What does this fold into?
Amino acid sequence: MNNFTYHNPVKIVFGKNTIAKIKDLIPANNKVLITYGGGSIKKNGVYDQVMKALSGYNVLEFGGIEANPDFNTLIKAVDLCKKEKVDFLLSVGGGSVLDGTKFIAAAVNYNGDPWEILTQKKSGKITKALPIGCVLTLAATGSEMNGFAVISRRETGEKLSFGSPLLFPQFSILDPQTTVSLSSHQTANGIVDAFIHVMEQYLTYDVNTPLQDRQSEAILKTLIETAPIVMNNPDDLDARANIMWCATQALNGLIACGVVQDWSTHMIGHELTAAYGLDHARSLAIVFPAIIENQKSRKFNKFIQYGKRTWHVIPADENNENDLNKAFDKVFNKTIDFFHSLGVKTKLSDSDLIPEKWAVNPEQTFEIIADRISKRGLKLGEHKNIGYDEIKEILNKCWK
Ligand code: NZQ
Ligand code: ZN
It folds into this structure.
């Protein structure tokens, strides 16, 4: 096992009717800015619950944070925080609202152009941030229990991540009732995102971490078992609760302890979102299988282990290469079928999202993406062997 330091200070308040607890979690004299997205919280009653819990506080609002939160929108909130001398940020929404709120929290106190936080990896220079609380309404990203954020800048076609220990929310309220209003499209996205988060921390090579492996497999198995229940019965609160806790556990740092990670699916997926506007999870479901095929020999043993323990696919003879390859293919197909069962496509050319853009020379876009990632100077993959050529091969596999 590799060395690690693990520290996660986020207070999780989990369960039905927990939004009322906000008043115990934010100091009474604080000026609070609630941040939210395009309005789902006003339709599903979450906004009313939050405002009730905040009665007596000095409250301001900033709505309109879009999915894949945009730098230009967030800068408006930064200006508002400075002008109004806001003490506390309360994010009410999904991962985009929370990530945007983390950026606001950091940018308010940043000396210099805040975009540097993302482009120049100056997150180490974040020395101060506004405190953040979260009421989560979409189970997917794990942002509610980590210090990371992903910010887009549509005017330059960029989508970049950053993180700081100062950006852990002080608390996250996870009431599964808030997720009942999600469309099946967003529910499926959340399941796929959490699934891939586990995979990016699991599907590398063995450094003797049996506990972390089994923790990862437990999340994968629970997602696989619970996904059809929640897709068929969106009102099933137990299923919603289990998906929610899986998604939080998938990216709160615990399963990353001491293991070798590979975030190449996310790195390439973010570029597809920046290029085509594809939903985050939908980009991952397309890139992940292409990476498995491209990196088959390197990920082989762990993939077989995943297949045995999660899908119960046992090779007829463990010492026979042919049998192992057959098992590999079976597990690969089961994984693809799982995404398809959620209505999530695994090829760019099948995607029904923004179809007119697919016609615009995908090869050219793939070159731009490969160039952009490789110019950042770091090769992707647990063996640091995925560079310009491999990214193009992977993207070509993503197409058909
Ligand atoms: O904007 P509103 O009106 O709220 O609608 C949202 C949005 O349109 C809607 N929604 C959210 N909760 C709802 C709801 N609709 C009905 N009922 C509810 N209860 O869902 C849509 C998508 O919301 P969004 O917040 O964008 O989804 P998600 O939570 O999947 O977040 C995606 C963002 O998180 C980043 C992604 O890159 C993407 O920008 N990620 C952040 C990570 C992190 N901070 O650790 C890790 C992830 O890998 C990911 O990269
Ligand atoms: Zn993700």
About this structure: The chain has 16 helices and eight strands. The chain has a mean pLDDT of 95. The first strand starts at residue 11 and ends at 14. The beta strands are 11-14, 31-35, 58-62, 88-93, 132-136, 148-153, 158-163, 171-174.
